[in-house]
Please model this.
Amino acid sequence: MKKLSLLGLLFFTIAIYAQNVQSPSKAINVAFKLTADGKPTYAVTYKTKSVIFESSLGIKLKESGDLVANFAIDSIKQITANETWQPVLGEQSNIKNSYNEMTINLSQIASGRKLNIVFRVFDEGVAFRYEFPKQPKLNYFIVTDEVSQFNLAGNHKAFWFPGDFDSQEYPYTETKLSEVNTDNIDRNNGIGLKSIAGKYVIQSPLMMKSADGLYINIFEAAVVNYPVMHLDLVPNEYKLTSHLVPNAIGDKAYLQTPCVSPWRTIMISNDARDIVGSKMILNLNEPCKLEDTSWIKPMKYVGIWWEMHLGKSTWDYAGSQNAQNAADGKLKPSGRHGATTENTKRYIDFAAKNGFDGVLVEGWNVGWEDWFGNWKEEVFDFTTPYPDFDLKAVNDYAKSKGIKMIMHHETSGSVANYERHLDRALELMKKYGYPAAKSGYVGRIIPRGEYHDGQTMVNHFNFVARRFADYKMMVNSHESSRPTGYSRTYPNYIAAEAARGNEFNAWSNGNPPMHETILPFTRLLGGPMDYTPGIFEIKMNIYDATKKEQVHTTLAKQLALYLTMYSPLQMAADLPENYEKYPDAFQFIKDVAVDWQDSKYLEAEPGDYLTVARKDKHSENWFLGAITDENARDTEIKLDFLSPNKKYTATIYADGVDADWQKNPKSYAIKTIQVTSKSKIKLHLANGGGTAISFKPIN
Amino acid sequence: MKKLSLLGLLFFTIAIYAQNVQSPSKAINVAFKLTADGKPTYAVTYKTKSVIFESSLGIKLKESGDLVANFAIDSIKQITANETWQPVLGEQSNIKNSYNEMTINLSQIASGRKLNIVFRVFDEGVAFRYEFPKQPKLNYFIVTDEVSQFNLAGNHKAFWFPGDFDSQEYPYTETKLSEVNTDNIDRNNGIGLKSIAGKYVIQSPLMMKSADGLYINIFEAAVVNYPVMHLDLVPNEYKLTSHLVPNAIGDKAYLQTPCVSPWRTIMISNDARDIVGSKMILNLNEPCKLEDTSWIKPMKYVGIWWEMHLGKSTWDYAGSQNAQNAADGKLKPSGRHGATTENTKRYIDFAAKNGFDGVLVEGWNVGWEDWFGNWKEEVFDFTTPYPDFDLKAVNDYAKSKGIKMIMHHETSGSVANYERHLDRALELMKKYGYPAAKSGYVGRIIPRGEYHDGQTMVNHFNFVARRFADYKMMVNSHESSRPTGYSRTYPNYIAAEAARGNEFNAWSNGNPPMHETILPFTRLLGGPMDYTPGIFEIKMNIYDATKKEQVHTTLAKQLALYLTMYSPLQMAADLPENYEKYPDAFQFIKDVAVDWQDSKYLEAEPGDYLTVARKDKHSENWFLGAITDENARDTEIKLDFLSPNKKYTATIYADGVDADWQKNPKSYAIKTIQVTSKSKIKLHLANGGGTAISFKPIN
Model:
């Protein structure tokens, strides 16, 4: 007992002084301290500014007491890391991973249980996580809450949407933190399933800007075997606390030592480009676990998809998406089914003619006649095609044209059913040579009581990526929980939706023009997004005069999105016949690369504008995308990213002089000029507009 | 509106009179009536006696109002059925299915929703179910409760155990209904996971006996896509009400019209043999859905199993069943692992030498080092053997000896994980030629919040049977919900445990001598039980002098169980070396058939005794089993079930004169006599004893 007291004294001696760790550049400092009652806390400064005031850390357990107080420091370790790694697919061929790390090994004095807190400080931000070492007094445990606080130093401007356990498909609201209130958002926003956690619960990634020009982003990385973290806000105090998504019975996570929590990240910079271009989230994930990645290929694709969103055709054979239509088990064809063999061949022809890699077909399989909104368990079997979709014929035809088919697995949220059928679905894909699938999770989750963002579902999405990898196949999940960098570890998890995609423009109030200027600061930090850009027929009244819906961009901005919305899987989402109407603009989509040697974020302001230039991984071609929000924008871009001593033909796809996302969205102008790395280009972006440029070396 | 009123009037005209339907023998009458407020009720009489007083019927829904009152009768239909069908495996080659059926088509006056109640009256009992027809005003719905009442006419003696959502592995308590109180049972009963629903909640099947000698049994049949029904008792009123098992969020069942509830059954007879021999539960299930059943074969087997229960060897390679033993992922062999290639070959040799069909091996696969009690999701992968178990060598060796291997799939309750791996597990079985698996569900269910007896798990057990059928494989589930006749529909669901099996005798307070005299009146009504009889070394102190545990029968009774515990899958559960010590008694296990032409229940009294004679399906051999409870019993059996004009050699395996389950359980006496159908045999059964007889025709 004497010894223990002595140790206790020693601990407290250490504890009263803060332990600091800094970014390589020294701009960011993290100070860790135990309070008098042994509560772990941290604070963050950026240069001379406070960013995070003293904030608590800790984990609450269902049994055997919380891990929030009465700690003493056993030891502290600092290391420095500096490495470069090569992603299989990515925004750049080489990613630098450089940070200082401080690990604080804590013991809870009375219980003897051990908890480590690890900080990594990068030049663009801070990350911390909890480590639960293997120990006699903590083996299996249930997390009931995590109390990671982020006590912000000011009433920042924030781009937020409600903390919803089932959806991130919201448009952003831009207010001060003190003005956050999820009751005030327009809930008639086209989201089919909402599970909003409370008035002051918002989602991470949370992008903010301080009054004095600091960009701050709260997010997480490497969410593996843990639920998604939302954020509880005390609006007038600017205090955020982690809000973990519960399971069916209110528990948050089931863990076994040794294990770790996800990383909680705080990106900080006075330059927004540091955040939008950060690879911190990927860096905080485990390296690639696949030995052979030769089968993981970027892909530009078209698909039978937008025509259903437009109501031109239907996902289901019977045309109503209602089981009552399938009376006596006999489906009566409506004649409006999209996924027919014939229509698929038309898309294959179009894809082949225009140099696309793949064709996605949704609605190919039985189940769509009764798929939505009924919390039904056995909806799809993932293997039975409709009578008018000939799997063999379609795949044979695609092969003859050099086109890869993309399978579609809509689960309707019935994940238990999907997991039960997954191996059979994968075997079917193998049989016909599908290299990839798009998965969907529209609807309430089964196992019932689970949420899209709970530990169970996080594990499911990661499991699916791994299982696809077993088959050397890629997966692109829609309506999944938002990625936090798992694509580094399993790069066949090639993309995800997990945010409000372009589809909302077809049938809801849509995505306001600023939407795409925020996503790169939020959703895209965690991994590629299958946003499905490239809609040329902006206004839906072209299909039906009574329709008021429209895409909230100009046509040129749709082109620019191929750059600003990074993904190695990019759709040309519009109808083939629409592309054929605008062959000159379509040329950009045909030309644009989807995997990159390098990326340069040239201009960035969340909610306002973004300009990025990227160099094709496999050529000397560069591409540039610039977008703006609802406000027109004039800017001048230095082309010093181009290789010196090279001349380039720059084809500029710009908004027409009279372009306006509402009044005249399809006005565009294409011109070709010659440039070098010393050139500057003036760009004019219309209201809701954008510019796309391709640079091809001449010599 | 006028028309509707007129109809309303008509309905009520019908409603005030009871609608009756009788058993073919006319002994049982069911009277259906609507109350003044349109509540459906029924009452049951047996000859002149009331059995069920007026009792309510109805279903409560989560949305859109309950289906319990305000009904009017649309129409009533009666039909008579009389058919005979042939089970693939069974107690008899031909099963008679004879009943009168009354369907009452109800409409709820205000809501317009339709509900049918169907009664089937057999000679040995009543069944009713709810039918939810396809209708515009009821498509998807959630059942929050079922209010099927059974208002019993007296304070009957009952054999009961607690209504537990996760276990039926209880010994029975025999009391009057008024004395039921689950608080009073000994909870130190070896059951690892208990989820007792309340003081006065008990399980069905509930076997009762009235003061005037009527045997009454409340159970259910065809539980498909619905939770298990337990029973709420009002002890002093003898009223039972259905208590459905909830899911993680408290809902009971998710249904879509058209659909049906399970059948609720009330068996009634003044002769207990009518109940123990009833095929009502099977008759109420759907006919076999498999076209080819040639691969479904009865099986007598031995296995690496009892030695683990004894503690002679371990399931896991490392010997501790504790992950801490698997430090750094490296399992250290303890030298006590049961499922080694060598040991398996020993069992295969033993099986081949003694004419068994199969060998079960538990503990063959990685996971057992950390499998129990931790609610862990990823325990077993069902495909990775321990290093000392050579799948190929074992299966090659078994094939060379004509023995079939029985795979083992312990899920530890992590059903999500099992379903995720099931196809891979089945592919492995196919690769090596396994015809069957034993599955296990020890532990809390994952998806977390689900119970063994909820709709999700009922669906799982049925799904597994169907999925095994896809592979032409048989399955024998342990710790599943108790069967309700699904083996008629999928006869490859060859057996289940789902009650307190013989294993409890190895390491707990065990199964009291009356236990096996009750199970045939309860658990076995729903389908075969893998009770694992045949323990010869009754007292565990033979292995370890400090052990007090013992099997609560004599050795001879263990033989008789092969008859009284019907199953087409029968284990000889003891160690090979123990059988070799008693070759004369073992001969009976070698001889006894497991699939039957006919079965005759000769004597039956639940809780006291049972005598049954069965004729082998494929020969003229008969076998007889007689068991008693803790009381010795003398009886005389007429052999008039034997074929006339035939002489038989009867080998009688009886308790020794000094036999007693506690004091001298291994005392037995074997004698051979010649008998005919006119013979009578006097049997003496010791305390906790039994007699087994084989009859082989001489001419």
